[in-house]
Amino acid sequence: MKKSKDPFEIAFEEQEESPPESPVGLDENEPQTSAGPSVNLGGDFDANPIVHTTDPSTSLAVPLSVGTSGPIAKPKEDDEEEEEENMEVELGKLPSRGDPAKTAKMQEILAHFTADQMSRYESFRRSGFQKSNMKRLLSSITGSAKISIPMTIVVSGIAKMFVGEIVETAKVVMSERRESGPIRPCHIREAYRRLKVDGKIPKRSVPRLFR
Amino acid sequence: MSTGPFPKVKVGSSLPSEASLKRKRGMFQKDLHHMMYGFGDDANPLPETVALVEDIVVKYVTDIVHKAQDDATKRGKLFTEDFLFLIRKDLPKLNRCTELLSMDEEIKQARKVIWVDEEKLVSVD
Questions:
Q1: Where does the record place the TAFII28-like protein domain (chain A) (predicted)?
Q2: According to the model, what pLDDT value does residue B22 have?
Q3: Interface confidence (ipTM) of the complex
Q4: B-chain residues near A150 (CB < 8 A)
Q5: How far is Cα A145 from Cα B7, in angstroms, rounded to an integer?
């Protein structure tokens, strides 16, 4: 995990210093509930963040990974990539790709995160497959020693989103079975099966992982 | 399917192409730990769950690489574009990948500029 100053953190601190500019006149004291209606994320914000710490993050993560709210996903990915890449380069704030309004909305939401949500969100943004490991895996699969960096980046990105699909589907499975706690392998297997039915898993004529 | 201790050899090594592949156990364990938490799992995911997801991810990566290679056999070389072609139907992934790639380009350009500037500074002094 990189310990460098995350632009995302900078944005978060800046938000605290100055009063947030809220287009709808949000009340500082009110948590999620006010952020919910003013932001169209496509996912429901849980009104009670203290009780359901996992749900808001999941619902926040769902639009991002499913991509129904594509524009919102964009500016965040700027920050993540900037932070992922070599931090020796002082890039400062990269020009925001997406809508400045969307970025402002995002920062508004972030200001209202609880500590739990923030830590989960931080993990979501910062986590990734190590380039060296992925490179090694790719070269062992292809058989060629040289794997280009962009290829590692692309495959790591695809793999991360895939993990997201699995974990989120597994959470859905868990909620259907009304179970709680850490995800168990049986949930993962069911999630994998569902994704297969949806056609998200590349089909090959090879022995299946689960028989 | 048992969730007992995982073998050091990759699952599915009955295939001739993967028979010689010996993967270190828990190659992506740390990364997956944080990733799963970020995507909604408990702060401490179960080790067997992490191991299972790792197996799934490795299988997934293997499958898409093989698929990309199949499409690229005419050329003989594997290009990044082959992966992008594979996920063309999956819009979120495609958007994300194009985003990552253009970011990488930008950063490369930015680094070049900074390197050149430093050179100029040195020569001025």
A1: 109-194
A2: 57
A3: 0.75
A4: 80, 101, 104
A5: 25
Distance between CA atoms of A105 and A11, rounded to whole angstroms? Answer: 12
Q: pTM score, two decimals?
A: 0.62
Low-confidence ranges of chain B (pLDDT < 50): 2, 4, 6-21
Q: Which residues of B touch A91 (CB under 8 A)?
A: 107, 110
How far is Cα A132 from Cα A138, in angstroms, rounded to an integer? 10
**What residues of B are in contact with residue A210 (Cβ under 8 Å)?**
1
Could you write out the DSSP letters of every residue in A123-192?
A: HHHH----HHHHHHHHHHHH--S---HHHHHHHHHHHHHHHHHHHHHHHHHHHHTT--SS--HHHHHHHH
Query: Do A135 and A147 meet the contact criterion of CB atoms below 8 Å apart?
Result: yes
Residue written as token pair 């380009």: B105
Q: Which amino acid is at A125?
A: R
Residues whose CB falls within 8 Å of the CB of residue A94, separated by 6 or more in sequence, listed in order: A7, A78, A79, A82, B106
Cβ burial of A147 (10 Å; 0-12, 13-18, 19+) is: buried
Question: Chain A: nearest CA to B73, how far in angstroms?
Answer: 12
CA distance A17 to chain B (A): 27
Answer positive or negative: Cα dihedral of A96, A99, A101, A104.
Answer: negative
Q: Is A3 on the interface with B (CB under 8 A)?
A: no
Residues of A in contact with B65 (CB under 8 A): 138, 141-142, 155
Characterize A164-198 residue by residue with b for buried, 16 or more Cβ atoms within 10 angstroms of its Cβ, and e for exposed: bbbbbbbbbbbeeeeeeebbbbbbbbbbbebbeee
CB atoms near residue A211 (< 10 Å): 5
Name the stretches of chain A with pLDDT < 70.
Answer: 1-99, 204-208, 211
* Per-residue pLDDT at A204: 67
CB B65 within 8 A of CB A141: yes
